[in-house]
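in:
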């Protein structure tokens, strides 16, 4: 192995966007969150000090209006609806270290500290503004950015809003942002999204509103409490709130800058507004922003108005938690738009999990029981499969480093397929018990040991079952890479258990 990622920093901080509390969790939310979870789990395997953050965005006009419609306060509405996200992430085995809510006191203090720093830098002033406002986006748009009178993202009419607002002087940061992008070419990935952000900057930046007087649900400006913070200035600050910006300088120094995973619809805010805000306050921008496309259903983005939202729990009932996780990480490349279909998910489940991984485990356990009295033999130190494992591990490690889970899993499944092919060529189930059969089965058990570690970020419960069935104690996520993926560590002499099919084939 090349040891491609042995020299990375010991601290790793990854975030999802924070999700609106008045949304119902759907597979688009799950896609980002599962990806961040798998990335966090991979970096824990590397022995790094990992912090994984997700949470909910609970302020703004949209939340206030829905609360009024439901005859309750905005906080009562947020308390009621945040549970949907928390329960969904528990169901999907999401291992977040923190869950932030923007209604929390720690976040209010952090937002006001950031605002004050930008104000003191001379980057915030008071203006009267009239513009076209999308309540769903919580953003102003020019006529050129709309489809007629409708928002291009939500398909809903915008509102003409006129009020006295405080503005952040984004225009002042055009040159500094361009310099930042030039000096940090991998700041935004993939390159197509980097180019999109650069295009937005180069067309000329406009100052943007950071406050409203027409609502009271939000964080008051520290120098003028008649104004409530505009939702994007509030929401984006969550990433440094959780990192300790407000009151834990030691934690902040270790955690920040972090890595953001976001959908392409919020690229402008994360890749232009956010770094400029941090620069204004004298803070470092995020390390990387990884942008993915939409998860489409029938060629369309999911939305309540189109009635095409799919809840993750609907899929878990049929495919299991690990089946859902594996599909979104292996079948949906991170970056471009992806098309979700039940047929595609079924095909991926049966091909990868039932026919390849599940069949390998079942086949090996059955033959060990018949030919070795259920005791697993040790692998051949010079096995040809050792070269396959070394090559594919390096490809997988490189892919995880680039936030390309589907490519990482392609590499792992090449190991699995090569092992199945080796078994079919040697046919140990037809041979008489002896040293040759022991080496073939020992190689397969060693592959299962390594594969259970490499799949632990993706299918954590199933990988633990594989680990225990081949007689190993503990769990694969307790191992450390790259050492634990080196060939020859299955000790032999362990009881191998057959058990029920790990991934029953679905029809």
């Amino acid at each position: 192995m090349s040891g491609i990622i042995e020299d990375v920093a010991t601290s790793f901080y990854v975030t999802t966007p924070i999700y609106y509390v008045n949304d119902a969790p759907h597979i688009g939310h799950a896609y980002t969150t599962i990806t961040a979870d798998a990335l966090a789990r991979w970096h824990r395997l590397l022995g790094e000090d990992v912090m994984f953050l997700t949470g909910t965005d609970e302020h703004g006009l949209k939340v206030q209006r829905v609360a009024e419609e439901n005859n309750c306060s905005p906080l009562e509405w947020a308390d009621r609806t945040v549970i949907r996200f928390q329960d969904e992430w528990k169901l999907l085995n999401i291992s977040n270290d923190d869950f932030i809510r923007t209604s929390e006191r720690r976040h209010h203090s952090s937002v006001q500290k950031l605002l004050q720093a930008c104000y003191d830098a001379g980057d915030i002033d008071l203006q009267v503004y009239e513009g076209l406002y999308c309540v769903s986006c919580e953003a102003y748009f020019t006529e050129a950015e709309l489809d007629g009178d409708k928002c291009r993202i939500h398909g809903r009419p915008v509102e003409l809003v006129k009020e006295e607002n405080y503005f952040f002087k984004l225009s002042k940061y055009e040159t500094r942002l361009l310099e930042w992008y030039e000096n940090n070419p991998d700041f935004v990935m993939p390159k197509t999204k980097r180019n999109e952000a650069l295009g937005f900057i180069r067309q000329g930046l406009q100052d943007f509103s950071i406050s409203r007087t027409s609502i009271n649900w939000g964080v008051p400006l520290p120098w003028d409490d008649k104004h409530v913070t505009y939702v994007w200035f509030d929401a984006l600050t969550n990433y440094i709130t959780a990192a300790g910006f407000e009151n834990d300088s030691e934690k902040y120094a270790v955690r920040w800058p972090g890595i953001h995973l976001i959908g392409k619809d919020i690229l402008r805010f994360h890749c232009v507004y956010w770094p400029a805000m941090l620069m204004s306050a004298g803070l470092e921008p995020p390390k990387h922003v990884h942008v993915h496309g939409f998860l489409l259903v029938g060629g369309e983005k999911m939305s309540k108005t189109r009635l095409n939202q799919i809840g993750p729990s609907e899929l878990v009932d049929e495919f299991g938690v690990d089946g859902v996780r594996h599909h979104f990480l292996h079948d949906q490349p991170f970056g471009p738009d992806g098309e979700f279909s039940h047929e595609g998910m079924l095909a991926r489940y049966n091909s990868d999990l039932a026919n390849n991984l599940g069949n390998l485990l079942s086949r090996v356990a059955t033959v060990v029981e018949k030919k070795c009295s259920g005791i697993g033999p040790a692998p051949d130190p010079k096995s040809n499969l050792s070269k396959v494992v070394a090559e594919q591990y390096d490809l997988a490690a490189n892919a995880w480093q680039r936030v390309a889970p589907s490519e990482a899993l392609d590499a792992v499944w090449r190991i699995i397929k090569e092992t199945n092919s080796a078994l079919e060529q040697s046919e140990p189930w037809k041979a008489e018990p002896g040293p040759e059969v022991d080496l073939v089965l020992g190689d397969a058990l060693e592959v299962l040991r390594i594969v259970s570690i490499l799949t632990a970020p993706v299918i954590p419960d199933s990988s633990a079952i594989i680990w225990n069935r081949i007689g190993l104690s503990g769990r694969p996520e307790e191992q450390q890479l790259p050492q634990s993926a080196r060939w020859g560590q299955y000790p032999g002499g362990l009881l191998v258990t057959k058990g029920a099919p790990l991934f029953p084939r679905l029809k």
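note: The mean pLDDT is 93.
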